[in-house]
Design brief:
Elements (H helix, E strand, L loop, with lengths): L2 E2 L5 E2 L1 H4 L1 H4 L5 H8 L2 H13 L1 E3 H8 L3 H13 L3 E6 L2 E6 L5 H13 L5 H8 L13
Antiparallel strand pairs: 1-2, 3-5, 4-5
Helix pairs in contact: 4-7, 5-6, 5-8
Length: 138
């Protein structure tokens, strides 16, 4: 279910998609985000998987919830991610309005560096407490 901000605007994918067009997702911000390992791996995981909840990203990257949430919040503020709430879960995906060249950089990085996600992908597939809805992309 998508909530509503105090302004009356929906809180979800649509309300967040504006960030890139407002200049928050420019080249400098994009590359600064890629320079941090957890942010880079989070973006690549989301490029590969489509949509993931915080607990899945925590498991894949073997990091704590506060650390992952902090990085995801930064990526969201930068306009690179959008999130939605489904019950107690917060699900993240790449912003569908991300500039094409940014999507191309992520895609090329995945193709040229498959080793980056070998261990995170293994951890994700071995995750024993993975929520049912988390294993499918929306």
């Amino acid at each position: 279910m998508i909530g509503v901000e105090k302004t009356g605007n929906p809180v979800g994918y649509e309300a967040q998609r504006q960030n890139l067009s407002e200049g928050a997702g420019d080249a400098l911000m994009f590359y600064k985000n890629l320079a941090e390992e957890n942010r880079l791996l989070s973006l690549l995981l989301l490029k590969q998987e489509g949509e993931l909840c915080v607990c899945e990203i925590m498991e894949a990257l073997n990091q704590s919830q506060p650390k992952i949430s902090r990085h995801l919040a930064q990526l969201r503020r930068s306009g690179l991610l959008v999130d939605r709430r489904q019950g107690q879960w917060v699900l993240y995906r790449l912003n569908p309005d991300m500039h094409t060249w940014m999507q191309d950089v992520l895609e090329r990085t995945l193709i040229e560096n498959p080793h980056l996600l070998e261990e995170p992908s293994r951890r994700l597939s071995d995750m024993s407490t993975r929520p049912i809805f988390c294993s499918t992309s929306a």
